[in-house]
Amino acid sequence: MKCQSVGTISNCGWTPTAPPVPIAIPWGDWLNAHPNGGISGIIAQNDDMALGALQAVKSRGLTPTEVPVTSIDGMPDAIQAAKRNEITTFLQDAQAQSQGALDVALRALAGKTTSRAP
Q1: 5 in a domain, yes or no?
Q2: Domain-located, residue 7
């Protein structure tokens, strides 16, 4: 399968106080500009944008199987959509990531070596 970017949508008009409605409009424009399988999947920067993309996909009579949508965050609304097999989302565990970074920093300060992935 060949992957090709058809472009990017700069923040899609997204704001934390007004997702996902503004996002659906630019995604809909892209789906209209690239019909008949021209867009075979959408990778969104966050769950709110993904939910807006999903709204645009559905409003064009397409299914999440035809145009899969994936994102990052693991927010409750996106998890519910994932349970319905409408999107894929990946949890960013800020607490675990912060703890891991702190552990590495403390080991370095104590003069202990850290292992590195190959």
Answers
A1: no
A2: no
Local structure of residue 71 (DSSP, 8 states) = E
Token readout for 65 is: 């199987």
Q: Domain range spanning residue 72? A: 16-92
Q: What confidence score (pLDDT) does residue 34 get? A: 78
Q: Find the angle CA(48)-CA(74)-CA(59) to the nearest 5 degrees.
A: 35
Domain count, the chain: 1
Residue from 1, 5, 3, 59 nearest 27 by CA: 59
Low-confidence ranges of the chain (pLDDT < 50): 1-3, 16-22
CA distance 104 to 1: 39
| Alpha carbons within 13 A on the beta-carbon side of 8 | 4
E strand residue ranges, the chain: 42-43, 69-73, 88-91
